[in-house]
Amino acid sequence: MAARTARFAIACWLIAAPTSLALANPFQCLWTGTKKVASDIARDTKRRNCWPEPFVYPDIQSVRAPFGVMIAHGWRQQNLIGDYHFHEGGIGLTEAGRQKIRWILFEAAPQHRAIYVQMADDPNVTAARVAEIQQVAAQLSPYHEPPPVLQTRIQPQGWPAEWVDSVSRKYREATPAPVLPEKSSTEAF
């Protein structure tokens, strides 16, 4: 019985061994004699010799991709015409709004010349804002095609120009005049 079991185990091993050896052995072309397997070995050798190169560029792209997104968001924030660029009621550009549009048209990088408008709660107010900005942009650059005016829901960072001006004025008014201290007779030089 033991001999019969041993023969059965050896027969199973002989049947299974060549298939597992063929898959695991990199030198299978030596006993198969096929050209295809030899070319696979040559290809794999070339891949191993230039190993980090094929994988470096996807890694670089995956690291740089967030920076592109951050740059786009930064330009969107920079070119945003917010609520405080409009008069009370949300319609009618203030002088600060006109200056911001002028800066976008003439100073911003050409590939980032898009004007973003903060959307109002009322769609009619948003449409009026967009129409007014397009009109001002067309007036400021009559010889060039005006940049696109896009709507966005992001909030502007900063404060209204009137508020900044009033804080600056109050600071200057509250600053005491510079006065040198009186010279005392007990001080020695």
Counting H and I runs of at least 4 residues, what is the number of helices?
Answer: 7
The helix/strand class is mainly alpha
Which oligomerization state do the chains in this entry correspond to?
single chain
Helix content: 55-70%
Calculate the terminal CA-CA distance, rounded to whole Å. 118 Å
User: Average pLDDT value?
Assistant: 83
Question: What secondary-structure arrangement, pairings included, does this model have?
Answer:
Layout: H1 2-24, H2 29-32, H3 35-49, H4 52-78, E1 80-81, H5 95-106, E2 115-118, H6 123-140, E3 149-152, H7 161-174
Parallel strand pairs: 1-2, 2-3
Q: What can you see in these coordinates?
A:
It is elongated, with a radius of gyration of 37 Å. Residues 19-24 have low confidence and may be disordered. With 189 residues, the protein is mainly alpha-helical. A 3-stranded parallel beta sheet has the order 1-2-3. Helix 5 crosses helix 6. It has helices spanning 2-24, 29-32, 35-49, 52-78, 95-106, 123-140, 161-174, and strands at 80-81, 115-118, 149-152. The protein contains 7 helices and 3 strands; from the N terminus they run ααααβαβαβα. Strand 1 (80-81), helix 5 and strand 2 (115-118) form a beta-alpha-beta unit. The protein starts with a helix and ends in a 15-residue tail after the last helix.
Structure described in brief:
With 189 residues, the protein is mainly alpha-helical.
Features:
mainly alpha, 3 strands, 189 residues, 3-stranded parallel sheet
